Amino acid sequence: MSTQASTPSRLADLIEKGGALSGFPWPEESGDYDMRIGRDGTWYYRGEPIGRKRLCQLFSTILQRDADGGYWLVTPVERGRITVDDAPFVAVEMSIGEGHGEGRKGEDRGQVLSFRTNLDHWVTADADHRISVVHDPDTGEPSPYIRFRDRLDALISRSVFYELADLAEEVETADGQRLVVRSGDEYFDLGPAE
Asked: Where does the record place the DUF1285 domain (predicted)?
């Protein structure tokens, strides 16, 4: 059974009443919301940008991705499918900090890379929040991502990716020379050195 699509203000009320946390069980009823997240991270409702950042931040707390790659806003009482052009978040800033404590084999953890999204959430690159790069098969153009939470990624903006590439080291692998960047105890492959 499908519910009628909610308005953003009705969804916001449901989120606030339900605690605004992702991960709770999906209700039986579902519908499609006329909402879309553009490749640049802009949220749209009925084709118009949602101008209130706080509202988008609230919606992001209940955003989930199913095993088939579909995106949903899920409250305790209803869920609705939304469209995401690429990734639901965009990493717009990178911070380089020092690792705390000891890494593997007693080494200093060195630099730790954290990323701020367009909705002002921070995520640190680590084993659970991996950096990955997908290359367009036709153009070879890279699309870099960092895992934000669950199955949700943030597209790393072009300017931030250039900063990230500046930190990369060339390493020899079975696949040839690769650019690799480190965050804490983890190393992330950015692609071929050339």
From this structure: 27-87, 88-190
